[in-house]
Amino acid sequence: MGAQFKSICFFIIIGIIILMMINLNTGFLSLHFQDFFQDSANSQIAEIRVNRVLVMLLAGISIPTSGFLMQEYFQNPLAGPDILGITSVASLSVAFYIFFSHDILIPEFLQNSFLSLAAIVGSLLLMLILLSMSNKFQDKSYLIIFGFLVSAFAGAIVSLLQFYAENQSLKNYILWSFGANNMVSRNQICVLSILVVLGLFICFKSIKPLIGNSLGNSYAQSLGVNLNQLKIFIIVASSLLSASVTAFLGPILFIGIIVPHFCRLIYNPSKLWQQWILNMFLGMLMMLFFSIIAEKTQIPLNVISSVFGIPVILMMLLKQNKV
Q: What pTM was computed for the model?
């Protein structure tokens, strides 16, 4: 690794540490150092803030990695975790659970777990469909179109469910869709961590084939790259990483598109190993920053990411049009 890459990582890590400290001290109450390590009147608040930081770090790792995989595989800088409809189907699964489970007696401590399970199950079902459909589509662009159609269909059903939903069910769904990073428990973080580690492992196995794939299909095959296996790895890893975060935090939009874009701007885009590392570091930095804004302003996390992401994507489109 070159000196430039090490310097970039060093400054980003310093920024991550600073933003972690600010996150732990952001809220309605001022906490003392001992509140985080000893039993006190504010220990529960301290635990909530620690959980908030941990889940932002995991989201910062997962979403940009998913976007990085999609963009490198499809060779499209505007591809992201939503490109295959994974986030939309996760939202649809949660909508079905919220709108149809109000008549079922479920203990309160299990409600969030079942809600998260609904999102993961929905995304995994779509992943199986994508794997079966990928064998029928030789052209990558057809898989993107299929994902777009799935997203549109899922969005239409969610809108229909919202139209006929009761007031409380509609409110619960809207609150989930905003991204409540303060509601994630330690047990949920453990489950999220397992899913993220599994997705990162598959990503690790995909980087080397992706390097060959970036040189063209024919050249990749001459290097011994199994293109079908690579396609499966990309779909599975992206599904796991994006669906797990969507399950526990709601749909966090556009981060999977803009973080890989920034990483390519600050370092050589052809070095995929370094790009992956940069995506994780910069993703953590950005999610921690958004978390501070959300706590200071009480604006939902999803709204903040959208307000920040849409102008960046618009500039990317204008830049591509000039080229």
A: 0.87
